Amino acid sequence: MATAASKNSTLPWVEKYRPTKIDEIVGNADAVERLAAMAATGNVPNLIFSGPPGIGKTTSILCLAHTLLGPAYKDAVLELNASDDRGIDVVRNKIKMFAQKKVTLPPGRHKIVLLDEADSMTSAAQQAMRRTMEIYSNTTRFALACNASEKIIEPIQSRCAIVRFTRLSDQEVLERVMKVVEKEEVPYVPDGLEAVVFTADGDMRQALNNLQATHSGFGYVNQENVFKVCDQPHPQVISDMLTHCLRGNVDDAYDRIKFLYAAGFSAMDIIGTVYRVTKNFNSEAMPEFVKLEFIREIGFMHMRVGDGVNSLLQMAGLCAKLCKVVECAKAGILR
Amino acid sequence: MGEKCYCRTRRSDLPLPMRCVDFQNAIERRREHTARAVSMGDIRSFFGGGGGAPKKPSADAAAAAKPSSPPAAKKSAPAKPSDDATPMDLTGDDDVVDLTATATKTSTTPKASPAPAKRKLPEATTDADANAPAKTTTPKKPKTTTPKSTPKKPKTTASASKSKKAPGEKKPIPAPPGYPKREDELKFSVIDVSKPWGFGGGTEMAGPPNKGRKPAPRGPDGCLEGCTFVVSGVLDSLERDEAEDFIKRHGGKVTSAVSGKTTYLLVGMDCGKSKYAKAKSVGTPLMDEDGLFAMVEALAEEAAKNPVKTEVEMKPADGVEAKPEIVPAAAAKKPAPSAAAAAAAAPSQAAAAAAGAASRPKKAEDTPLWVNKYKPSQPAQLIGNGKNIADLRKFLQTWDALHGKDGTAKDMKGKDKPMKAVLISGPPGIGKSSAASIISKQLGFEVTEVNASDTRGKSSNDIRDGVGGKSSNAVREMVTNKAMSFFGGPPKKTVLIMDEVDGMSGGDRGGVMELINCIKISKIPIICICNDKYNQKLKSLQNYVLDMPFSRPTKGQIVKRMLLIAEQEGIQMNEAAMEALIETTNNDIRLIINQLQMRRLTKQSFAYDDIKSLAKKDIDMGPFTAVDKLCAPDANRLTVTERLNLVFQDSDIIPLFIQENYVQYRPYAAKNDVERLQLLSAAATSISEGDVMNKSIRAKQNWGLMPYANIVSSVMPASTMRGSREVFGLHPGERNFNRFPSWLGKNSTHGKNKRLLQEVHSHAMTSEGFKADAASLREYYLPLLKLLTTRPMKSAALGGKEKEGIPEAMATMDAYCLTRQDWESIQDVTKLKGNGPLFADAALGIPTAVKSAFTRECNDKGRVVHSGILTQEAKRGRKRGAAAVADDDDEEEGDGGSDGEGEGEDGLPKKPKISAKRLAAIGFVAKDDGKKKPAAKKKAAPKKKKDAK
């Protein structure tokens, strides 16, 4: 796939640099190790891959299937995703037919049914699948990928080994981004890549997309350009603001907000970022109850902005209120 | 730094509101436990002083310690650069201890736990002295074993379990010298239940005082095997689940109640009185955390000293020794599983080694899923549900005799009549399908299975469907058994297994009905299988099947067989690990096997810690569980994001749950009743603010507010109130569980009353005299109307001539155009909950005979009450009698707004006075039957009103 893709420069980088071998997969070392073992022995149980988007679930399944089946991939894999019709009839006809189909494969290999985004299948369709999974397990194995594994009905979960994928660490994302940057010869400064990694929040797909967008938009990857592309108030500024609020420096906090507001961010964007940064704020610096009070104030602010009152004055009010929360907490006064 | 100094001064000079304590704790993280210890000391002294003679000396010690400790903390802190690392803090704590409890404290090891020393008796020794041989002469500890014996082996396990029969001798593994200690040397206290209710009395309220300070030793795997622990109270450094993990990691068992089989009772502060008493009565030795650590350390040292020896001993000794010992051990109740586990563990090493070489190539050729490989093939291999399986067998065996050609079932009637089919129900992965097919095969039946992957709609009479293979037709044909005896000879016995009947949906129109028909005409037994027998779809099926609910097999039932599989596949695993695995999979055997297979791909052992990190089966937890977690005393261990996700489980109902139950929590943060009230008020504020946000979400479709609303309406109050739940004893027999939000029921009653009121109001509006809105009707008119329409019929007023009161009541009703139904509505709408004459049911005193006479009178043909609701009937009626009334444009008087609406639509001109007959002719008047919605119309209303006046 990659070799064919590299000739084609218009391809999104996400596709162009999608791993094709299991050992190219970034992150989730434990799960990938197991996949490699499966690929080696050929004995694949029915699998459920679950985890947030952009961390390599689909890629892993495809790699596994390619490694296992090689040239027979075309015949021996039935791939269905949410764009395909996967109603109960398809499960009963198409999938069952495929399971019954005879394909010549090397010993120890099985046909594979790949169901991407399986959590969007109706529970009736999932019901219809359960016995098929068992009866034809001699010839066919299922691999399901989903974001929320609780949407998979319990009987299916019971029939599968569940592999949980977690978000990639920033380090892992950065490594891959560096590789792409080198191959594509993108001009960059380190803090630009850092910003790419930060905005991606462990989502490789988003990291590559942001990188490509910044590259094609500005030609140069630095922090400023990345945040322009991603159009997000810089979380570091917000974080500074909150730190000042925690120290009771209302003026300094206000300066940060004013800076963002002057930069043209809408009040809603700023508020949204303030919320996210607050929620993930280091709990050592911001104790839980202060955090909750902050979120409460931010919530009311959000409500007012939603009502159309999105002036800078409101922002200033928020800063003041956050400071007040901290001061009250220190003085031991209950709200 | 600035804040720190600030906080410190504050802490010393006023009893801080708890939130503030929280705040400071976080700001100076490393001081946290000191602060907590101080505040706990406060709590204790608060009630120790007030609540009669304090029973425990430790409380005294704490109380005594209290005045001196805060200044100590204060004094010591500024003296040191507070940015230092943990050791500095430890010394800081030591200061506290030195000032308070023992000057003789010698220990400087990090393992020593200074802070709780405050609670010790002054003469209590620290664990530095614990190994002194002098202490070994305690009455509790029969010093039989020496630390020399090798750590945990089946041998010791077995011998220990034998010796267990002698009471008081419960030492399956060697405790280090000095353990278990005498009771008064242990750091523990028992909850004093005689103390009046108070704060700080809850068992799980306080965290471990030395959390994270003591490095937990790591012993050899399985070194505690054969030991059963019960944990009670707050341990010194481990949280409860950490302690359980610790024990299980080393192969020990943790149970919840003390029994004769318990090896040790692990005690901490505030341990349960009943557990303590039970332990005393059965002679279970007590042990504290230090003891446990020391024991594991000793075992680890032992293992380190002679690793070769243990290894060597392990293999041959187990192979040989385990065998003969299992036999007697198996006779004893308890050790059987552990012995089996030991037996399993022994060959597994060899097997693992062999497996690497032998099983790999073998697998490449033949790679069935383990689930299939180890699928039970004999009835004896089925796990659990013994009675159900026996029933199923009996059902199949007797089927022919009962339902066959000359079956006896035809003659039976009613309840005794045996069913022709069974419905097996139960969660997935417990062997329902396996049981059905194995038993059938064993009894010589030929099994035909139809499952959710087959279309199972209604069969049709269309011949093409039958030929084309519509499976329902095939099924129908099969159960009627026409073709079976075609070839002559005895007909084969067949059974139909209908799997996943609750999966009939979508395309399977009429599937359940078809199944029922099949059962009715069937000449063969039918076994239906489903997960959820309460499924709405299966309701009609219930009447035709014998119910056979399978339950999840217990841990004990699964564990043996799974260990066997693990052993055969070369996975090293001990019993504790397997039990943990069973727990994470929720007793789903199939999933366990799947997980084992996954594991075997890369590793050859499965330790307890691996399982902890394993993916759990994701099942949506109900709101009850989510709220329990949110309000638990240790909820602060979850991050805000995690708690927010809990609320997002069902963000409609969880805020209601919180609102229903928050008052019942005794906040962990409160030190006294005043503070509790303050917290309650804060929580109530949050809830009401959350309501404001929720309103904005619904009214303005402002869904972006959702996370804030959830935090403010659920996470904040729960975090304020988190603590242990209690009941106030207002309702006898009230259980201490979170209640389902009563708002839902109340809201629905409210809606119903509102609807009834609207109806009464619309009727009343048709009378000319009444012009007010529904609210005033309820507020000012109905209380009086209720009296006026009931009192005349009560015996108290008329002394046996109640029936004479009927016309009077009816006159009042007619004046307001009220129907018999409205009369009921009035009673409902005005009903208030409470005691006293004001709240009594006004209709209560009316004798039944009078009431029915009243109903009859109301339903009398002549009485017609005007109503504007029945537009539908009117239209229908008009169609019917269109010809008859075509020229009737003199109908309808323009009285009453609601009436006018219905009429206006039809464009009928309005004119006063119309005969009831005429109205009836156009279908506009229905009889007031007193049951259905008022179908009636006025005729006499204005007239009668005049009469009444």
From TrEMBL, chain A:
GO terms for cellular component: DNA replication factor C complex; nucleus. Residues 43-175 form the AAA+ ATPase domain. Gene3D superfamilies: 1.10.8.60, 1.20.272.10, P-loop containing nucleotide triphosphate hydrolases. It holds the Pfam family Rep_fac_C. One of its GO terms (biological process) is DNA repair. Keywords: ATP-binding, DNA replication, Nucleotide-binding, Nucleus. It is found in: Nucleus. Signal peptide: none annotated. CDD domains: AAA, HLD_clamp_RFC. Its main location: nucleus. Belongs to the activator 1 small subunits family. Heterotetramer of subunits RFC2, RFC3, RFC4 and RFC5 that can form a complex with RFC1. This is Replication factor C subunit 2. It comes from Micromonas pusilla (strain CCMP1545) (Picoplanktonic green alga).
From TrEMBL, chain B:
Residues 933-949 have a biased composition (Basic residues). Residues 219-297 form the BRCT domain. Heterotetramer of subunits RFC2, RFC3, RFC4 and RFC5 that can form a complex with RFC1. Signal peptide: none annotated. This is Replication factor C subunit 1. Residues 45-183, 199-219, 873-949 are annotated as: Disordered. It holds the Pfam family RFC1. One of its GO terms (cellular component) is nucleus. Its main location: nucleus. Residues 886-906 have a biased composition (Acidic residues). Belongs to the activator 1 large subunit family. Residues 54-80, 98-116, 124-137 have a biased composition (Low complexity). SMART domains: AAA, BRCT. It comes from Micromonas pusilla (strain CCMP1545). It comes from the Eukaryota.
